[in-house]
Amino acid sequence: MPVMLQTPFYDPGKTYDENYNYGPYGAFADGKDLRTNEIPKIDFLGFKINTPFGIPAGPLLNAKFCKAAFEKGFDVIHYKTRRSRVFPTNQWPNVLFVDVPGDLTPLGGAKKPLLGSKTTNKNPTHFSITNSFGNPSPDPDIWQEDMKKAVEAEGPGQLLVASVVGTIKKGFSEEDYFDDFAKSAKLAKETGVKVIELNLSCPNVANEGIICYDLEAVERICRKSKGSVGDMPLLIKLGYFSPEEQNLLENIVKSILPYISGIAAINTIPAPVVDENGKQALPGSPARLVAGICGASIKWAGLEMVKRLNLIKKKLKSNFAIIGVGGVMKPADYFEYRKFGSDLVQSATGAMWNPYLAQEVKRRLKTL
Ligand SMILES: Cc1cc2nc3c(=O)[nH]c(=O)nc-3n(C[C@H](O)[C@H](O)[C@H](O)COP(=O)(O)O)c2cc1C
Questions:
Q1: Does residue 90's CB lie within 6 angstroms of at least one atom of ligand 1?
Q2: What is the 3-state secondary structure (H, E, C) of 210-252?
């Protein structure tokens, strides 16, 4: 029996463009401003924040979504990843529920096909979904104007972060591609946003693969992007690194310390997703057989990355911020991430189906 769920603020039953033009949906969009006069006292990247909880890059498509998120008390939020040029969205559907028994591990569950469907019988704190958009982007002229409005929607103790990614164009050299990250970061800086994140981890991007595991590429992208944003804090977003890749992770972090102020982890865990006939569930290119999985089943991976990034931070005697993302579906998950050493915790899937998640976290904090 499918469970009756709240209308998510990003509605997977509608196309990306419908969501962009008419969203957000559900209680998230009721216009009620739930912010109170909190005294911002948590330091995050030199800014005073109310509560170090928010929404990562993805489900907040434009200023309307960002304004609604701020009003519902999500204090540090990311505007959806943007590019230096127009880029199309993957064919609808982009989000399916996936049936994952327990934790999704890269060498275990994520090796076998997962069943994707438009309904679920799991309750909203337990499910996992695909997210397969391909990092669409409007023209910079459009998103820059809109991002300015999102910055204006910040209340006291709230912070908007811009997420950007490079785009490969026909005839581009590797250098041109890395320069394009820096160009996108510069375009974001022009909007007045105070922090920029480089998306180095998305598995669903046409052509580009996952660059976050390539030390040299990451170093060059960060160096160039820092050159274009100057004193502004620069973050990077990583995918999951296995314990066997801990040395690689440490070397990457060491090489980019001069340029970055924080690391967000994780994005999604890639896995094949099929329909009830065993066929590719998401339409379009054969590459879409594999989709990024997020939600409850990847919490273990986000927590593990936070723990291991903290070990590296201590070893290198550094003070970069750690942003814990992945499977935060309920207030207890926020507290778990904080215990593991996250300076900021964010929820995408959980927040989409629970517009009051930030309120619930704040209520629990008050009783401590
Ligand atoms: C609808 C949706 C869209 C997303 N788009 C992006 C994106 O544009 N850039 C990005 O870095 N991550 C994107 N993500 C990944 C999230 O930022 C996050 O890393 C991932 O969903 C894991 O968190 P969760 O388990 O709370 O969903 C997206 C996630 C969702 C659910």
A1: no
A2: CHHHCHHHHHHHHHHHHHHHCCCCEEEEECCCCHHHHHHHHHH
pTM listed for this prediction: 0.97
Ligand 1: atom nearest CA of 329 is 26
Q: How far does residue 266's CA lie from ligand 1's centre (Å)? A: 9
Examine the pLDDT at 203 and tell me if it is beyond 80: no
Query: 94, 200, 294, 298: which to mutate for ligand 1, most atoms within 8 A of CB?
Result: 294
Per-residue pLDDT reduced to its tens digit, 126-156: 999 999 999 999 999 999 999 999 999 999 9
- Going by alpha carbons, the residue nearest to atom 4 of ligand 1 is 58
- pLDDT tens-digit series, residues 288-345: 999 999 999 999 999 999 999 999 999 999 999 999 999 999 999 999 999 999 999 9
Q: Is 267 in the pocket of ligand 1 (CB under 6 A)?
A: yes
Give the Cα separation of 217 and 180 in Å (integer).
Answer: 13
User: How far apart, in whole angstroms, are the C-alpha atoms of residue 157 and residue 186?
Assistant: 25
pLDDT tens digit string along 85-126? 999 999 999 999 998 989 999 998 889 999 999 999 888 899
Instruction: Name the residue ranges covered by the structural domains of the chain.
Output: 16-366
Q: Which atom of ligand 1 is nearest to the CA of 80?
A: 8
Q: Band the pLDDT of 83: cuts 50, 70, 90.
A: very high
For residue 4, the CA-to-ligand 1 centroid distance in Å is: 23
Structure tokens at 106: 């890269």
Work out whether strand 114-117 and strand 269-274 pair parallel, antiparallel, or are unpaired.
parallel
**CATH 3.20.20.70 holds for 16-366:** yes
CB of 94 within 6 A of ligand 1: the answer is no
CA of 82 to the centre of ligand 1 (A): 13
CA 131 to ligand 1 center in whole angstroms: 7
| 278 alpha carbon, distance to own chain's centre | 29
Cis peptide leading into residue 59 (ω within 30°)? no
Give the mean model confidence (pLDDT) for residues 263-278: 96
